Each structure stands twice: as C-alpha cells, then as structure tokens.
Amino acid sequence: MTLKIENLTGGYFGTTVLKDVDFTVNDGELVGLIGLNGAGKSTTIQEIIGLLTPYQGQILLDGLSIREDAETYRKKIGFIPEQPSLYEELTLREHIEVTALAYDVAPEVAMSRAEKLLKTFRLSDKLDWFPANFSKGMKQKVMIICAFLTEPSLYIIDEPFLGLDPLAINDLIDLMLEMKKTGASILMSTHILSTAERFCDKFIVLHEGRVIADGDLAALRVKFNLPEASLDEIYVALTDESWQAHG
Ligand SMILES: Nc1ncnc2c1ncn2[C@@H]1O[C@H](COP(=O)(O)OP(=O)(O)OP(=O)(O)O)[C@@H](O)[C@H]1O
C-alpha cells in the first residue's frame, strides 16, 4: 500500500493549519510523524482518514482518493486514535463483531484473529465486559485489537504509546513489525523519539504545518550536518528558531 500526500493545504473552518504538505509512505514502511505540540500531526491524520477535506492538493491510497470511492478508501485504513472512543452499551465481544461487520471481515475470521490479539494484550477473560468501564490503557488495547483484526493495508496510529504499560508497548511494536512484514504500511505520530528512532524506517518532521524534514536517520544527519546525532538531538536542532531563521 502506498499513501501519497501531494501538496496538501488544509485545516479547520477558517483556519489553515497544513501548508503544502507533501510526503509518501511506501509499501511495508513504518513512518514516524513527529513535531511539537500544535505542529499539525493530528490534523494531517484527520485529513488522511477523511474527517477533514483538503483545501488544496490530494491524498491517494494506492492511487485512490476518498472522493472516487469513499467506502473502498476507508476500508483500507485501520485507525487508532489518541483518545479511545468506545460504545458505552457494547461489550468487548460486540465491539469485535461490529468492527468485523464494518470492515466486511467474516465473523469467524474476526473472532479467530481477535483471540490471538486478546491473548497478546491479556484481555481474553474480558470478552463479556463493557470496555467503557476499562482503564485508559485497557481501552487503548481494545482500539488496537479492533484496528488490527481488520488487517488493513494502512495503519494510522496517533500517539500509540500514551497510557500503555511497557509490556503492551512491546507487544504493539511486535505487532506493527509483523504487519509491516506482510506489506502493510504504518504512519505513526509520536513524541517518543527514542522508540521512533529504533523502529521507524523514516520520519516526517512537521513544524507549524509544514514538512521541514523527510527521510531516515542517516539522511537527516547528513542533511542537517549533525553526524552521530540522535533523532532527539536532530529534532531539537530542527525546531530551533534560530536555525529556522538562518537555515
Ligand atoms: N478543531 C479545531 N478547530 C480549529 N483549530 C484546530 C482544531 N484542532 C486543532 N486545531 C489547531 O490546529 C493546529 C494543529 O493542531 P494538531 O492537533 O494537528 O497538532 P498536533 O501536532 O497533533 O499536536 P499535539 O502534539 O499537541 O497532539 C493547532 O494550532 C490547533 O490549535
């Protein structure tokens, strides 16, 4: 799956947030979307999943735009939001069933995929519980399970590590790497740069709604003349206003 964002300008009614954003997530790539608070990461994600409509430019999934075929476009994406959003009146089992229905996954296939995921995230004994009453981390795990059981070709994950315990973070990373091997692409926004540095194939650095850097760690080190620097150090240098002024 290839996600192509071309010259995207967009935002909220009356407010332009993203300016001429351009980047690609290729087949089997895990890409980190990084930037300061307010840089435009969540806005970019909302444009990709179709909650916002670009003012200019386009977003293509394997060449398909949401305008051409919204249902096919949406089914290609598994989205894990920063804040878990769950149905008050549905049990965990029913969340799995509703997700399977929405993504046209046969119920028995969904349940067999879910069983593996429930075991991984230690929720197997909670199938008949109501996730609305779960802890923050457990709710996040439900969102992860629902996204992964559809086996989409593109995962969009907003701040995946917040609220997860260290075991769950490792399990989620393992799952992402497993899906990547099958050719799925992943775009993940995160502030946890040390983890991003270890696992992402490349980085898109957003600053004030613009892409100020795009590439793997080696390319960023060369581009900004910071040999040996960590992603954290490069990032601090990139977002430094004096660098912006003279860079
Ligand atoms: N619903 C909205 N209406 C108007 N402006 C918004 C809305 N949501 C976000 N913004 C603005 O868009 C800009 C980018 O916000 P966004 O949430 O995309 O940043 P972010 O990079 O995801 O930040 P964070 O790291 O804090 O999650 C900010 O200036 C914010 O005030």
From TrEMBL:
Q: Which GO terms describe its molecular function?
A: ATP binding; ATP hydrolysis activity
Nucleotide-binding among the record's keywords?
A: yes
Which parts of the sequence belong to the ABC transporter domain? Answer: 3-233
- UniProt keyword annotations, A-Z: ATP-binding, Nucleotide-binding, Transport
Query: Mind telling me which InterPro entries this protein's record contains?
Result: AAA+_ATPase (IPR003593), ABC_transporter-like_ATP-bd (IPR003439), ABC_transporter-like_CS (IPR017871), ABC_Transporter_VariousFunc (IPR051782), P-loop_NTPase (IPR027417)
Q: Does the keyword Nucleotide-binding apply?
A: yes
Q: Which domain of life is it from?
A: Bacteria
Name under which the protein is recorded: ABC transporter ATP-binding protein
Q: From which organism does this entry originate? A: Pseudolactococcus laudensis
